[in-house]
Hints:
Elements: H1 9-22, E1 35-36, E2 43-46, E3 48-64, E4 68-71, E5 76-80, E6 87-88, E7 93-97, E8 100-106, H2 122-133, H3 147-159, E9 173-176, E10 180-185, E11 192-193, E12 198-204, E13 207-214, E14 226-230, E15 236-244, E16 249-250, E17 259-267, E18 279-297, E19 302-303, E20 309-315, E21 318-330, E22 333-337, E23 346-349
Parallel strand pairs: 8-9
Antiparallel strand pairs: 1-21, 2-23, 3-13, 3-18, 4-12, 5-7, 5-11, 6-10, 7-8, 10-12, 13-17, 14-15, 14-18, 15-17, 16-17, 18-22, 19-20, 20-21, 20-23, 21-22
Amino acid sequence: MRRGRAVAxxxxxxxxxxxxxxxxxxxxxxxxxxxxxxxxxxATAPVERGxxxxxxxxxxxxxxxxxxxxxxxxxxxxxxxxRTGSTVERNERLYEIxxxxxxxxxxxxxxxxxxxxxxxxxDVEQLERNLAELGYTGFTPDEEYTELTxxxxxxxxxxxxxxxTGKVGPQDITFAPGKVRIKxxxxxxxxxxxxxxxxxxxxxxxxIVTFRLDVAESRLAKAGTKVTVDLPDGTxxxxxxxxxxxxxxxxxxxxxxxxxxxxxxxxxxPDEVDGFDxxxxxxxxxxxxxxxxxxxxxxxxLALPGGGFGLQVVQGGTVxxxxxxxxxxxxxxxEVSGGGLREGAKVGVPKI
Length: 352
């Protein structure tokens, strides 16, 4: 995770300590709010009024959604496979075994048995809905495989010059949620296939970005959060967080074992996103926005002896210490209130 302008609470505390040590503390016996005429801080910064945005950047990977493996539905010799990177749609060939095409149909469930008249189940309904979409009708799409379904299957088989059996099984079709992109070919032409052995690795056709975020920062990226993505070609695309992982795992960096969750970004205009598979990108997140607030640099904060935080206000060659209430930390600044602060006032900071 790469922080952009955002400052996490832990970082802010460290900055507070550093600022407290760097600034010249003036006589501890004087009360907060009193004028101080001896010694000035090494540098000053203005109190600013404006919007403060909690933002961050994360390294992500541009890829495709819905990765899955396609396993062989029958034993035999692989006689054809698609080209890596190509897209296969409904009713098109995924691969061939012994010259017999296995075609893609759309559905969430697997094709695990040979369907025939009398069979019932969700897989039957998936098949029937595909047949209807392809124009092979004459039945009511439901969970019952009837003689009318069998007749439609035979018409479908005839259109592909296949044997007209009225039955269909894993040796004929494979289900996937939608059209697929061929990520890799696991078994080449001429190799032997066995039922259940991987033949292809596919993805969905939609471009997505995956990235990991510290659990402590996950509030910045809930499902639906708008983001921008810096792409490999130098352009920027808009999108939103489409999913947030529920399981936190340590990151890959051995020096950073903080728990992280995996998030996915979908693009507003996916057809406009080009680039290689598994390309590095940068995800820009914007969380909460505090509008029209007073802010100071984080390193202007002082840890007060009695507890809480304060600032050194410099005016007319004198210094007074005021106690303030803290709000959001972001963009290297912190929201402050109280102490009679106003826009443009000068506060002490360490000299850079």
